[in-house]
Specification:
It is built from 17 helices and 13 strands. It has 365 residues and is of the alpha/beta class. The chain starts with 8 loop residues before the first helix and ends with a helix. Helix content is 45%, strand content 15%. The strands form three sheets. The chain has a five-stranded parallel β-sheet, with helices on both faces. A four-stranded parallel β-sheet has the order 2-1-3-4, sandwiched between helices. It has a four-stranded parallel β-sheet with strand order 11-10-12-13. The longest helix has 17 residues. The structure holds 1,3-dihydroxyacetonephosphate (13P) and iron/sulfur cluster.
């Protein structure tokens, strides 16, 4: 990282209104040299500055196609890594706060996944029988692992297509890090629950015996998103008792029990599209992050649509929240002075293999 001309300490105490003006001014100065990508879970004060918003798939495609010199990624670390891997070598990707990670992505690391692969190889021929599939919510070295072992990346939008591709290659899938996306997608394809086993990475052989590994079609990593585990099936039952006309829509990171009760399941982009296209006056119960749901409610309320957040408690993604207006102003003002801060750079050897797994995914759409 280049030396920072302007220190973050000078921004930490700025109020949001000051930051707002400084962000707008820096953006104007930078013009089309810089593009801001914003994930749907970003807080309003940051989200409103995004030139493009989207889910993980849409934003990674955009990063691959953008002509801007610099991509400021208002999202989390793995998203900025994907943007770096898919963008041109001369483009730079910045993440406003380097601590904006993803707690689910952190539940799988290369050492654990390599150990799992070796342990699987003791009971089956992993290389010829198992396609490794990583959810895009994972570190770049896990995408590289998939690239190295004939595997692929998926997002919440394309998980079914990716599993179909994977089963064409080999009879089993090792799916990490999100067990819920893997289970919900596999079940939707007709794979019975008893053919999807959970690999507990804290136990030898994932806590499984040889027979269950041999019988399994999908081996699910024991990872989860804590934000989406706040949604519970009884919240749906209680709500439907009061408002039986409600449509329920959930992100596939929510539990199997919640997704089974949902009328629709899909990515953040899908949820927005489905509710925006719905009839005026319709009522929706939504199981995904609060910032998205609050914005959707504000956007749709004038059409008489009622958009409700599923959980009675606040479920914000605390890591997405780390990108605050102070960090965005700091990154943009430095950039407008010619100084790069918080650049995300995936080492080239890792990027080459990760790109392979990402390109396998992108070639399918
Ligand atoms: P989407 O790709 O659906 O936006 O999901 C990303 C994510 O992290 C959801 O928790
Ligand atoms: Fe990760 Fe969950 Fe936050 Fe999505 S909502 S970025 S999966 S912690």
């Amino acid at each position: 990282m280049a030396a920072s001309a302007l220190s973050i300490q000078n921004y930490a105490l700025l109020d949001d209104n000051d930051c707002e003006q400084r962000i707008v001014a820096a953006k104007q100065k930078l013009a089309d040299r810089c593009i801001i990508l914003g994930h749907h879970y970003q807080r309003d004060e940051v989200f409103r500055h995004a030139d493009v918003s989207g889910d993980s798939l849409k934003l990674s495609r955009y990063a691959a196609e953008s002509g801007a010199e610099t991509i400021v990624f208002c999202g989390v670390h793995f998203m900025a890594e994907v943007a770096d891997i898919l963008s041109r070598p001369e483009q730079k990707v910045l993440l406003p706060d380097l601590a904006a990670g993803c707690s689910m992505a952190d539940m799988a690391n290369l050492a654990n996944v390599e150990r799992c692969w070796q342990e699987l190889a003791q009971v089956i021929d992993a290389e010829s029988q198992v396609t490794p599939v990583t959810y895009i919510n994972s570190a770049a070295d896990l995408k590289a692992f998939c690239g190295q072992h004939g595997g692929i990346v998926c997002t919440s939008t394309n998980a079914r297509d990716i599993l179909e591709w994977s089963f064409e290659k080999r009879e089993k899938v090792l799916f990490f890090p999100d067990q819920h996306l893997g289970r919900n997608t596999g079940y939707g394809m007709g794979i019975p629950l008893d053919q999807m086993v959970v690999w507990d990475f804290s136990r030898p052989m994932g806590g499984l015996d040889q027979e269950s590994i041999e019988r399994a079609r999908i081996i699910l990593w024991k990872g989860f998103c804590s934000v989406h585990q706040m949604f519970q099936p009884h919240q749906i039952d209680d709500f439907l008792q009061k408002h039986p006309e409600t449509k329920v829509i959930a992100h596939p990171e929510a539990s199997f029990e919640v997704c089974q009760k949902a009328d629709f399941i899909g990515s953040t982009e899908y949820i927005l599209k489905k509710v925006r296209e719905a009839d005026a006056g319709s009522r929706w119960l939504v199981a995904t992050e609060l910032n998205l749901v609050n914005r959707l409610h504000e956007e749709c309320k004038h059409e008489g649509k009622n958009i409700h957040f599923m959980s009675p408690t606040v479920c914000m993604c605390s890591t997405m929240f780390r990108n605050d207006p102070q960090h965005l102003a700091w990154v943009l003002e430095n950039l407008s002075e010619g100084t790069i801060v918080n650049q995300i750079q995936v080492p080239e050897a890792e990027a080459v293999l990760a790109r392979k797994a990402l390109e396998n995914m992108l070639s399918l759409a």
